[in-house]
Amino acid sequence: MSDSKENAADGAARREGGVPTSSRPQAAPQNVFDVKKLQEERNPRDLKMLLLDLLNGRRRHRQSDFFKIPGPMPRSISRGNLPKLRDGDYWVAEKSDGDRFVMFYSESRRRTYLLGRKFEFLIVPGDFYNRMFQGEGDTMLDGELVRETNNGVERTTYLVFDAVILKGKKVSDCKLVDRLKCVGNAAHMFRTARDQHTAPFAMQSKTFKPKRKVGEILSGITRDSGSHSGHPVFWFEENRSTGKRRNMNDGLIFTPSEGGYMQRKLPILKWKSSDLQTIDVSVRLEDLERKSDKLKIYCNGRHPHRENDTAEIYLRDIPMPKNSQLIREMQGVAREAGRRGGGGWGRHGGGRGGRGGRGGRNGGRGGGGSASCIVEIGYDKTEGKWVVYRTRPDKGKANFITTCMSTFDALIDNLSAETIVEVCRGQNSDRRGEKRRLGT
């Protein structure tokens, strides 16, 4: 990658647009932004079709496409896909610990939405972003809501890491460096808005670097010394032209330079330390209410009989949480999902949908299965067992089985940050002795 391209991407993602500090609009401290209080669009079918056709072409979409966030998902880095990272043209950013949302502004409706993991359209309150984007066409950005500290002020920020359309200009098929220019332009629009203090949340572009500079990203990641050993907390801190900022961190993310937004050539890759590796699985209300020391967990997979449908797949039993409050929370989420008509999964009951189809917020009730909820689990090395960390009411489905398997591979391989740095620098990535030294 040439230095000119690197400078273009760094400038697009981080520059302040040449606005002098003295004349730059000052942002007021942001209140805590609560996504749970947002109103949901009642009839988003036409909007869903518009975005799916935009991203995938006007083909027959899979039913599952209507119930998951419309964008590419990263794969965990394991020893098996290290050659892709070593040989591919990747850019690296820190993986923020936030909630992923696609931001979509509809020019025809003059309304801005946050699209969640269940492909729900949440209406962004106020008129700030409507005014910011209006005039020339739709806008679609990809990012995540994080709590950040910016120059000592804590605020909710939409951290943008990719772009599909900006004011009617489609860039989804462009190289990453060109999409990052749109990301930088969107963030610049926010920074230079005189009324940005009226925004429900701030907007910031994410910092990207060529993979060979992964060490510079890693240098900004530190572990919170006060966090629990079973589920540690990490922070990412950086100095930008606007000052110092930090947010919670969840590892590294590697995005290919080529292949467009939907990444049709190389996969997006993610790396986490082994104690941050988690998967999102489904648990059934009937199991939560049963007096047992074991809890069955399920993932998502292809339906054996319906080509464009999905089915629930049993993974294994894990210890039932000892925290009674967590169990009650899981039961409550499952019951609420059931009341909404989307908490059940039969043995072969995937989410119903398709072009003109329908389905619940947490999957379809195919097969008459029990109500269920999605939970995030991880392997606690200090306890030597899988544990439930939290409920995920924002997710409509458990992770796909391939995601679970790649996470298991990543846990087994236990790749260190040093190994990732060596691979990104084109050095020997074999290091077969590392697994033996780590006891895996």
From TrEMBL:
Domain mRNA capping enzyme C-terminal: 374-420
Protein's UniProt keywords contain Transcription regulation: no
Family matches, as CDD domains: Adenylation_mRNA_capping
Superkingdom of the organism of origin: Eukaryota
Compositionally biased residues, Gly residues: 340-369
E.C. designation(s): 2.7.7.50
One protein family per Pfam: mRNA_cap_C
Name of the protein this chain belongs to: mRNA guanylyltransferase
Species this protein is from: Lotharella globosa
